[in-house]
Amino acid sequence: MHLHLRDDDMLKLVAPKTSNTFAGALIMPNLLPPITTKEALLAYKKRIQEACKNDEFEPHVTIFFQVDYSYEFLKEIKDEIIAVKLYPFGVTTNSETGVSSMDVEVLRPTLESMEKLGIPLCVHGETKGFMMDREKEFLPIYESLAINFPDLKIMMEHISSKESIDLLKKYDNLYATITVHHLMLTLDDVVGGMLNPHAFCKPIVKKPEDRKALLQLALSAHPKVMFGSDSAPHQKNTKECHHGAAGVFTSPIALQVLTQLFEEHGKLDNLNAFISLNAQRIYNLNPIKKEIRLIKKDFIVPEVYSYKSEQVVPLFAGQKLVWSIS
Amino acid sequence: MHLHLRDDDMLKLVAPKTSNTFAGALIMPNLLPPITTKEALLAYKKRIQEACKNDEFEPHVTIFFQVDYSYEFLKEIKDEIIAVKLYPFGVTTNSETGVSSMDVEVLRPTLESMEKLGIPLCVHGETKGFMMDREKEFLPIYESLAINFPDLKIMMEHISSKESIDLLKKYDNLYATITVHHLMLTLDDVVGGMLNPHAFCKPIVKKPEDRKALLQLALSAHPKVMFGSDSAPHQKNTKECHHGAAGVFTSPIALQVLTQLFEEHGKLDNLNAFISLNAQRIYNLNPIKKEIRLIKKDFIVPEVYSYKSEQVVPLFAGQKLVWSIS
C-alpha cells in the first residue's frame, strides 16, 4: 500500500516487477511535477497500466496534497483515487512542492473536504530535525490531525520508530504502513559496515529496538497495520555518487523476504493479513483474484535490473533468499 | 596527530597535501600488510619523505599493535616510532589483522613493555556493536587500560561521543584526538539529506549534542586534547559505490576550516594549542620551525584531487571556505 513507480523508462522497468506478483498497489504521486489534476492522474494511471503489461494488477492512484484543493475538485476526483498523499516540504524525493506549514488551520479546508468525502490521507510524517528524531518530532502533528479530523482515515506511512506505535494504537483513525526494509535493517546496515547507498532511505532505518518493535507489530498482523513497500527506485548512478538519492528498491524481493521473515518467526499464518487483508479492510478494497506460488527454492537477488539506460539495484542485491516465486 | 597517508600513488597524491601546511604528523600504520617490523617501518618512512617533496615535514611513524611484540623488539624500535597503534579486529579500514580480544591479560605483555619504555599507545576505541554505541561500549576497555597501565600514555583516537569526554578527564594517563569532521558534522550530514559518502567515516559522526560537547572541548584547547585529522583518503570510486569505504579526506582543508571555526567562536587564541602545542607537550616533541600564512580570502575547495589514476574527493568539495593558505 505504498509504491513508487516513477515515469517513462523507469516506470516501464519497475512496474512489471510489482504487477507480476501483486494484485494491486497504492501508487505515490510525487512525480515531477506532482500529480495534482484529474487529467494528470488519469494519464499517469494509463501509463502505469500500459507499463504493467498485464491486466491482473490494479494501480490505486493518489494525488499530491495541496492546501487549495476545493471540495468540488475532490468530489469530482474521489472515485478515481484511493487517497491523498501529504508531503511536508523538502523531507524526501520530489517533495519540493510539499506543504510548507503543518499547521492544522492551514490544512483544515482540504482535510475537512476529504473527511466529508471519505477520502483517506497518507502522510510522510517527518520534520526537518535531526534524522534520528524526525519521525518522533512529527508525532504531535499526527496527534493533532487525529483529534481535529476524527472521521478522516490517516495513514502513518512507513513508520520507522517505536514511539510511533504507541500513537498508532491511541487513536482509532490512525493506521500505519511498514516497509520490508524497516523490518529487516537498522542503521548499521546503511553506515555500520561499508556504506550501502541502496539501503539509504527516508525515513532512515533506525535502531535495533525500533526494528524489533516494528517487527513485533507486523508479525502480529496488527489490524491497523499494512505492508507498504515504499519501494522507491532510483538510477544506480544517482545512488552510488557524491549526493546519493534516498529510496530502497524492494518490489521484486518483497514477497520472498516477508515470507522468509514470517516463517522464521513462526508467523506464516499472519502473512496474508499483513500483506493484503488488513489493507483490504482499511481501504474497503475488493481486489482482483490473483494466484502466485511461493516455493522453497533459493533465489539469488539480481545485482541490477535494467531497461534501456535505466539501471536499478535492489535491496539484498547478489544475496540469497530461501523463497522463490515460481 | 592522526593521519593516513596510504602508499604508492595515493601516498604521492596526499602526502604533499599535508606536508605543505603542517610541520609534522603522526602517521598511521594500517597498510596492507600493516607495519609491524623495523624494516617495513623505515622503508615506509622513507617513501613518505620522498612523497612529501620537501624537508619541512616530520612524519612521526607508528607500528601496528601486536600481542606478541617482545620487549627487545620494542626497545630496538623505540627511537624510530612515536607510538603504537592498536586496532580491534575488523572495526575499520585494514584492521583485519587487529587484536581479536581486548582482554587486558592478552594485551598485558606488550603494554607493560611499552609502559616501561615510555611508548604511547594510540587506540581506535570501538566495539562491533550498533554504530551509534560502539565508542560508548568501548569506554570500559579504555578505563581498564588506564587503571592497569597507569604509566602508559593512552590516546583515545578521534573521539566522537560526549560520553568519552568524562572518561578522558577522569584518568591522568588518558588523552584524546579530535578530527575536523567530528567538530563540523553530525550524522545529518552523512544520511540526513542526500547521502554523502565523503562524510562517511569510523567512528561515525554522531548527534548534535556529541558534536557540541566535542566542539566545546576543542575550542577550550583542553590540555589533554589534540587535533588529529584522521584524514583518510580513499579512491573516489571506492567511496561512491555499492560498498563504500569509510574515511574522510581533510588534509588540504583542515587548517582553513579550523581557523574559521575557532574564529567564529572567538577562540582563535586557543587554535595553536589545539592544533600543535598540546601535542608537543603530550608527545614531548620539538618540531621543526615552519611558517605558513593564513589569509582572509575565499578558498573554493577543489571537487577532486588527482594523481595518475588516483582521485580523492575532499570533505566540503566545491564549497567555499573563508580562509586560504597563501
Automatic annotation (TrEMBL), chains A, B:
Cofactors required: Zn(2+)
Residues recorded with modification N6-carboxylysine: K85
Pathway membership, UniProt: Pyrimidine metabolism; UMP biosynthesis via de novo pathway; (S)-dihydroorotate from bicarbonate: step 3/3
Gene3D superfamilies recorded: Metal-dependent hydrolases
Pfam family name, one: Amidohydro_2
Binding positions (substrate): H4, L5, R6, N30, H124, H234, A246
Protein residues bound to Zn(2+) 1: H2, H4, K85, D230
Cofactor descriptive note: Binds 2 Zn(2+) ions per subunit.
Keyword terms: Hydrolase, Metal-binding, Pyrimidine biosynthesis, Zinc
Gene Ontology molecular function: any one: dihydroorotase activity
Superkingdom of this protein's organism: Bacteria
UniProt key word Metal-binding: yes
Active site: D230
Catalytic activity: (S)-dihydroorotate + H2O = N-carbamoyl-L-aspartate + H(+)
Secretion signal span: none
EC primary class: hydrolase
Span of domain Amidohydrolase-related: 103-284
Family affiliation: Belongs to the metallo-dependent hydrolases superfamily. DHOase family. Class II DHOase subfamily.
Job of this protein: Catalyzes the reversible cyclization of carbamoyl aspartate to dihydroorotate.
NCBIfam families: pyrC_dimer
Full protein name: Dihydroorotase
Provenance organism: Arcobacter roscoffensis
